[in-house]
TrEMBL record:
Pfam families in the record: SelR
Domain of life, source organism: Bacteria
Catalytic activity, as annotated: L-methionyl-[protein] + [thioredoxin]-disulfide + H2O = L-methionyl-(R)-S-oxide-[protein] + [thioredoxin]-dithiol
Keyword NAD applies: no
EC class of the enzyme, as a word: oxidoreductase
Name of the protein this chain belongs to: peptide-methionine (R)-S-oxide reductase
Cofactors that this protein relies on: Zn(2+)
UniProt KW keywords: Metal-binding, Oxidoreductase, Zinc
Species name: Streptomyces spinoverrucosus
EC number(s) per entry: 1.8.4.12
Molecular functions per Gene Ontology: metal ion binding; peptide-methionine (R)-S-oxide reductase activity
Domain MsrB: 9-133
Cited Gene3D superfamilies: Peptide methionine sulfoxide reductase
Gene Ontology CC terms: cytoplasm
Amino acid sequence: MSYDVEKPDEQWRVELTPAEYAVLRQAATEPAFTGEYTDTKTKGVYSCRACGAELFTSNTKFESHCGWPSFYDPKDSDAVELIEDRSHGMVRTEVRCARCGSHLGHVFEGEGYPTPTDQRYCINSISLRLMPDEG
């Protein structure tokens, strides 16, 4: 897979904190209910912490009570890349930044949340950076 933003592993290790690196580049998961944006209601745009690509908006963020920020739709359909993930003995759909390939979280469907898409993009706070709306 080729991405618009490609960097050698050593460069990612320098640019990201160890915790950011573990999630964004090694697909780790931050502990539930510990992320900076889990309960945030601030209006704005959530960007990839690794490359700055705009991924989600506060308009599609919803309370899922799952322990991670949840969105029902990405900002643009081509902002994220979905990849089948068969790790940990289950089949899930991994969500990555389409610009740099960084791991963001997973998307789940059919859970019955009252959202327009019936999808829950369960995203690690540490993968995101919120840019609040002006004014």
